[in-house]
Structures are given as structure tokens and as C-alpha cells.
């Protein structure tokens, strides 16, 4: 079985509900994963937006959340998880706001979000990255390409 990452609040290629954005409650989505390769030593999760600020004219990849050294015994993360509730041993890296923790996305440039509709974010921005063997957790905050830690 291949690694699969899912959420109970949106499906693949659908919008992330507004409450998980900066225009809502700005809380993290619940996530679940399965199908880890045998011998997996730890997991890393990088929630990013690869075509910010607008898919029609992408300028950068914006990183919303970085977790690493997640134990392979963890099956997911609950909604609105707090740092003290992360699986034991999990570390946080800096996001593009230069802080730890989840930071919800915003609607694309020039697009208002009606109160009754989800924010137009793209679920492909959620990617689980992991190392099956030999992962060594870098220092906290080493999250960007060129820093001390891997962002594989």
C-alpha cells in the first residue's frame, strides 16, 4: 500500500473549508495517514501552497506548517491540534511567517470568499514528506531549502 494522506473535512481536489483559513478560525485541519513503508523511522509534514499567491500567476511556494520527527506509530493529527498535543517527539519548524504552528491560507488575490462558501485553496498543498530510514531531526526551524535540515 502506498502512503496516503487524507482529511475528514475535505476530499482530494476540493476546497479547504473556510474555518481552516486565516479568514476563519485559522485552525489546523484533521489529518490521517496510512501505508507507511516498513522500517519508517519518522515522518515530516509540510503544508504548503505551491502556487501562491495566485494559481494564474504563481510567484512562490508559501509554507503554512512544518512538523518533523513525527513517530511512525502516530496515525494522524486532530483538528486544531496544539503544540503540547502533538505526538511525543514531534518537533515544529518555522513556517513562512517565521513562527511555529499552523497558519491558515488566504483566498487567492482578487477573489472574495462568500460567507457560505469554502475558501478557494488547493488540497495538493498538503504533502506528507518522510524519510523511510536514517532520518535525523535537524535543529528546530531548519525548514527551508538551503537551511541546515532537509526539506526533501
Tell me what the structure shows:
The protein is mainly β. The protein has a single domain, classed as Phosphatidylethanolamine-binding Protein. Helix content is 0%, strand content 26%. It has no helices and seven strands. It has strands at residues 4-6, 31-34, 42-52, 60-70, 76-77, 91-92, 126-131. The strands form two sheets. Strands 6-4-3-7 form a four-stranded antiparallel beta sheet, with no helix packed on it. A three-stranded antiparallel beta sheet has the order 1-2-5, with no helix packed on it. Strand 3 (42-52) and strand 4 (60-70) form a beta hairpin. The chain is globular. The chain starts with a strand and ends in a 21-residue tail after the last strand. Mean pLDDT is 75; it is low at 110-152.
What's the quick description here?
This protein has 152 residues and is mainly β.
Helices and strands, with pairings:
Layout: E1 4-6, E2 31-34, E3 42-52, E4 60-70, E5 76-77, E6 91-92, E7 126-131
Antiparallel strand pairs: 1-2, 2-5, 3-4, 3-7, 4-6
For this entry, give a set of tags:
152 residues, mainly beta, Phosphatidylethanolamine-binding Protein, 4-stranded antiparallel β-sheet, 3-stranded antiparallel β-sheet, disordered C terminus
Mean pLDDT: 75
CATH architecture identity: Alpha-Beta Complex
- Indicate the percent of residues in helices: under 10%
Name the strands of the widest sheet in spatial order: 6-4-3-7
Amino acid at each position: 500500500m502506498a502512503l496516503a494522506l487524507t482529511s475528514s473535512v475535505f476530499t482530494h481536489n476540493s476546497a479547504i473549508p473556510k474555518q481552516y483559513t486565516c479568514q476563519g478560525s485559522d485552525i489546523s485541519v484533521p489529518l490521517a495517514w496510512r501505508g507507511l513503508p516498513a522500517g519508517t523511522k519518522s515522518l515530516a509534514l509540510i503544508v504548503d501552497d505551491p502556487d501562491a499567491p495566485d494559481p494564474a500567476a504563481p510567484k512562490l511556494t508559501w509554507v503554512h506548517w512544518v512538523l518533523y520527527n513525527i513517530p511512525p506509530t502516530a496515525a494522524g493529527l486532530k483538528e486544531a491540534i496544539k503544540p503540547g498535543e502533538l505526538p511525543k517527539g514531534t518537533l515544529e519548524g518555522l513556517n513562512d511567517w517565521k513562527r511555529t504552528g499552523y497558519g491558515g491560507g488566504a483566498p487567492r488575490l482578487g477573489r472574495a470568499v462568500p460567507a457560505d462558501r469554502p475558501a478557494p485553496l488547493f488540497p495538493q498543498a498538503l504533502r506528507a514528506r518522510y524519510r523511510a530510514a536514517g532520518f535525523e531531526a535537524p535543529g528546530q526551524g531548519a525548514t527551508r531549502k538551503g537551511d541546515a535540515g532537509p526539506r526533501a
